[in-house]
Amino acid sequence: MNRRSFLSSGLAMVGGSRLLSAGTRPWPFAQSSNERTLVVLELRGGNDGLSTLVPYGDDEYYKLRKGTAWKPETLHKVDEYRGFHKDLTEVSKRFNKGEVAVFQGIGYPNPNKSHFKSREIWHTADLRGRAGNDGWLGRLCEQRFPDSTLPELSIHIGNEEPYSLQSSTHPPVIFRSPDTYRWLGDGDAEASLDATERGGKGSTLDRLRRVMTNAKSSSARILDVLQRYETPVEYPTHESSRSMRAAAALIHAGMGSRVISATFRGFDTHADQRFDHSNALGILDNALQGFLADLERSQAGRETLVLVTSEFGRRAQENGSRGTDHGKAGVALALGTPVKGGLFGEHPSLTELDNGDLAYNLDFRRLYATALEWMGADAAGILGAKYDSLPFV
Where does residue 93 rank: exposed (0-12), middle (13-18), buried (19+ CB within 10 A)? Predict the structure, then answer.
């Protein structure tokens, strides 16, 4: 029985109503260090690249999107060909300051349009999906921090663990509600474990006891940080923004969390796309506005790289429900102080389609390779092959 299965079997760290006591000490920033932090935000459902970075200068766009197209005057224009969606105000502002990298036509060979399989491929950086590997972020933790015993080395803020964090040796801490995070243990199970004859060092029982001890201490540390966090930055009240506020608190506190992930939902826009997609992008933009401003307040925050990805893009042509169906190539973003902004990859052709889909021209593993190298890791060792990095950091 490994640590991950043990935690998921009943002795887990979850959101609850009872709180551990928190002190009233003033908020401490972490001491400056050379360690960097990688934050990965997943736009779950398949984000529509053509409505994120709109090719308003291409007449073909308006032929393909008669009911869902955005007029030029509504956009944050990048150049005479493309512009950011109207609700990506913060992203556009930071792009114009050279602080956002945009990856056009991003994808992988022989794309799969199933949510489940494509997410597996993105989460493992392996075209075989789960059959091929643990998660790419889990492998980063294993290689880059092999001796770390911190439970909170990698953290996911959300309802379920993304496979990207899967690791046989460095499983992540997961919590849904930042404000009420606590250790929730089964008292009978704990008493039984304590009463059981001690196993030798490295035995299953010894490992389970250490798991429980680490989980309890991690719960106390994280809740203490989240409850005491003070920031002049105003975050919206949406749950996604609260999650990003929690991420900023953990980074500033210097707890040793090197990988943090969160999920933004609402991007599977098969119908009523203009409203639903605008709402989803607005939530993302507002969360990023607070988070990025907050990160700039400490050295640890300024040593944080943020990636925004999605499992695939949408079809080039809208469907009969004023939406778009699962596609292939999409758009990804990189943000944060380390980023050298600009456009990477080519905007996919709207006339030379891949069976009705946008054709990819930029392998997403090049994005990963660059982030892994920036984190001080051997990217080829983690990805299983050499992928040329991109000059965005």
Answer: middle
Q: Are 156 and 176 in contact (CB under 8 A)?
A: no
Mean per-residue pLDDT for 63-92?
98
CB 90 within 8 A of CB 285: yes
Q: Which pLDDT tens digit goes with each residue over 361-385?
A: 999 999 999 999 999 999 999 999 9
Q: How far apart are CA 393 and CA 384, in angstroms?
A: 22
Please state, in angstroms and as integers, the Cα–Cα distance from residue 257 to each residue in 146, 175, 292, following that order: 14, 14, 17
- Enclosing H/E stretch for 107: strand 100-107
pLDDT of 212 higher than 80:
no
Contact status, residue 167 vs residue 259, Cβ threshold 8 Å:
no
Q: Which fold has domain 3-8+31-179+235-383?
A: Alkaline Phosphatase, subunit A (3.40.720)
Tell me: the pLDDT tens digits for 316-361?
Answer: 999 999 999 999 999 999 999 999 999 999 999 999 999 999 999 9
Residue with tokens 């022989």: 110
Q: Where are the domains of the chain?
A: 3-8+31-179+235-383
Indicate the Cα dihedral angle 46, 52, 56, 58, nearest 10°: -40
User: Backbone phi, then psi, for 264, in 5-degree steps?
Assistant: -110, 130
Q: State residue 346 phi and psi, 5-degree precision.
A: -105, 140
Q: Determine whether 149 is exposed, middle or buried from the number of CB atoms within 10 Å of its CB (0-12, 13-18, 19+).
A: exposed
Q: What predicted TM-score, i.e. pTM, was given to this entire model?
A: 0.87
